[in-house]
Amino acid sequence: MGVKPIPIIIDTDPGIDDAVAIAAAIFDEQLDVRLITTVAGNVNVEKTTDNALKLMEFFNQSIPVAKGCGQPLLKELEDASEIHGESGMAGYDFPKVTTAPLSMHAVEAMRQTLSEADEPITLVPIAALTNIALLFSMYPECKSKIKRIVMMGGSLSRGNTTTIAEFNTYVDPHAAAIVFQSGVPIVMVGLDVTSTALITKPEIEAIKSMNKTGKMIYSLFQHYRGGSLKSGGLKMHDLCAIAFLVKPELFTTQETYVEIEYNNGPASGATIADLKMAYHDKTNAEVCLDIDIPAFQKWFVESVGKMI
């Protein structure tokens, strides 16, 4: 008898690297994707929702998609369309969507999915944490139905949006603060690790003709500005969260306490980790410190091989 798959909810803002992460999760037998929720981030929430629906139709999946927040909690949205293209998934001509998201808001859909589950569910946010923060604020009782959060976001060193802030925590730092103070177990797969998780030309060429999804991913990569093949490879930030779920041995981690800077200014969105535990007597997160890059690249190619 095989191991029972891990039930997860993916909270996302597709996004080219989001699309790759979603594909890896859907086709990995170790994971059971119960719900996909969308949020504004890489592009606006109408586009991220449309992109999530495009992916479900492309993969012939009936996983429900719920549209979430179109704005951060307290600040204006700053998107990343310069990285992912105006649509969020530039580079591949997806057919026009024929399905619709759930009629309920993403927060309500998460609450319902959690309350109806017969076992705790893992939340996998690979975007700004707005929906998750609202869930915890409106329905704190849901926390008991969550096994843990495995998120892509934050950084232990430099940022990619400001000098110190990673994009997902920068987009909605107030939401990130609420989530890190929630008491729910958190695994933070941060930018300092994901920026080293490069997919290089050999891997990209290997997937090009593997299957329909490999061709689609290859096309998206031609328009993805998250790194460069000329400078080493493409950065697979969001895919690292999925890798942690199914191949945790690829990562070196440490338990620590993480605070979020949310005041206006050059440090807004920064994740400050007390790695020496000099200022806190308890931890609130497990942070990733390193990743086995060759093994990650091998896993990526193997993952695409499982897709349609």
UniProtKB/TrEMBL annotation:
<dbReference type="GO" id="GO:0045437">
    <property type="term" value="F:uridine nucleosidase activity"/>
</dbReference>
<dbReference type="GO" id="GO:0008477">
    <property type="term" value="F:purine nucleosidase activity"/>
</dbReference>
<feature type="domain" description="Inosine/uridine-preferring nucleoside hydrolase">
    <location>
        <begin position="8"/>
        <end position="297"/>
    </location>
</feature>
<dbReference type="GO" id="GO:0005829">
    <property type="term" value="C:cytosol"/>
</dbReference>
<dbReference type="InterPro" id="IPR015910">
    <property type="entry name" value="I/U_nuclsd_hydro_CS"/>
</dbReference>
<keyword id="KW-0326">Glycosidase</keyword>
<dbReference type="Pfam" id="PF01156">
    <property type="entry name" value="IU_nuc_hydro"/>
</dbReference>
<dbReference type="InterPro" id="IPR001910">
    <property type="entry name" value="Inosine/uridine_hydrolase_dom"/>
</dbReference>
<keyword id="KW-0378">Hydrolase</keyword>
<protein>
    <submittedName>
        <fullName>Ribonucleoside hydrolase RihC</fullName>
    </submittedName>
</protein>
<dbReference type="InterPro" id="IPR023186">
    <property type="entry name" value="IUNH"/>
</dbReference>
<dbReference type="GO" id="GO:0006152">
    <property type="term" value="P:purine nucleoside catabolic process"/>
</dbReference>
<dbReference type="InterPro" id="IPR036452">
    <property type="entry name" value="Ribo_hydro-like"/>
</dbReference>
